[in-house]
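Q: Given only this backbone (268 positions), what sequence would you predict?
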């Protein structure tokens, strides 16, 4: 049974479903530079919990306005004057949302522009593919604000750029942008025009894969990073046993055998 997602529930996220199974999820508080408040995180948890069972074939995650996301809502955090346990629980909800994205099995492609900073970078690094435009820039200003990362940067940003660069970003507020950001792994694509257009193309491409293949690509790879090499190899064999024998794959294999399927060629 396919789960229905009630779009009327969402106010901080603008959500559009397209016929090809690509859903566009837009952080929609541009006046606040899409800062992540409690309600936005809860909406991300709701959407990404439901997406794998709602027929969503790929998600483009975008931010409205000139900036993708300014990170933690610093005004809400200031006004709430939270204690340690309260903020620990805030962070655990961020992890819930971002883990659902990374491990949910639905491809998530982030379309980035302007500031991708603090928690905004933690959010972007939970996507499977990041596309940046020429205005996008990445930073971890937590150190300067008297804060520390709480939404997974110690794991995901370190994974992208390495421990020393991550520590440098936090200690000095270093900003990465342009081709250098791609070379470091903060984004996989940089475009002259709109990152949203390119992200949509990539999402449509990914949405043509069989859902079970995408499920494995977008959850098994992440899970295997957390395992020993021996266990990961075992898990890979089990996942491949299920995915590579799926009945829906037979038509694709038959098309290769009868030479009607596209061949893999170098870029022209
Ligand atoms: C905000 C936020 C925010 C903007 N929380 N309200 N993140 C940061 O340290 C980044 C903080 N933000 C900025 O550095 C800048 O706002 C931007 C580079 C993102 C955009 O600059 P600009 O000139 O376009 O906008 P602005 O004038 O600074 O802000 C416009 C409005 O957005 C203003 O509100 P207004 O009601 O006065 O109009 C700002 O207050 C509001 N705004 N950013 C709340 N972050 C789980 S731990 C994660 C820890 C972190 O993420 S720390 C990093 C926090």
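A: Predicted residues:
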């Amino acid at each position: 049974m396919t789960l229905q997602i009630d779009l009327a529930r969402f106010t901080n996220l603008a959500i559009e479903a397209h016929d090809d199974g690509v859903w566009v999820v837009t952080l929609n508080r541009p006046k606040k530079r899409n800062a992540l408040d409690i309600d936005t995180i809860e909406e991300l948890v709701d959407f990404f919990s439901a997406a794998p069972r709602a027929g969503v074939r790929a998600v483009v995650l975008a931010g409205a306005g000139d900036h993708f996301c300014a990170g933690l809502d610093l005004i809400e955090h200031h006004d709430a004057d939270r204690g340690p346990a309260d903020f620990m629980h805030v962070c655990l909800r961020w992890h819930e949302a971002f883990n659902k994205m990374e491990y949910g099995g639905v491809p998530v492609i982030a379309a980035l522009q302007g500031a991708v900073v603090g928690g905004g970078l933690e959010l972007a690094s939970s996507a499977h593919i990041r596309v940046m435009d020429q205005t996008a820039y990445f930073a971890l200003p937590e150190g300067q604000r008297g804060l520390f990362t709480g939404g997974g940067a110690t794991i995901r940003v370190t994974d992208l750029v390495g421990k020393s660069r991550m520590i440098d970003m936090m200690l000095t507020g270093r900003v990465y942008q342009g081709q250098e950001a791609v070379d470091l792994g903060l984004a996989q694509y940089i475009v002259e025009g709109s990152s949203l257009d390119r992200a949509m193309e990539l999402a449509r491409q990914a949405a043509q894969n069989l859902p079970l293949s995408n499920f494995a690509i977008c959850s098994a790879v992440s899970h295997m990073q957390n395992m020993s090499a021996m266990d990961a190899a075992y898990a890979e064999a089990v996942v491949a046993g299920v995915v590579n024998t799926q009945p829906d794959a037979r038509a694709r294999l038959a098309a290769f055998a009868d030479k009607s399927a596209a061949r893999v060629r170098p870029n022209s």
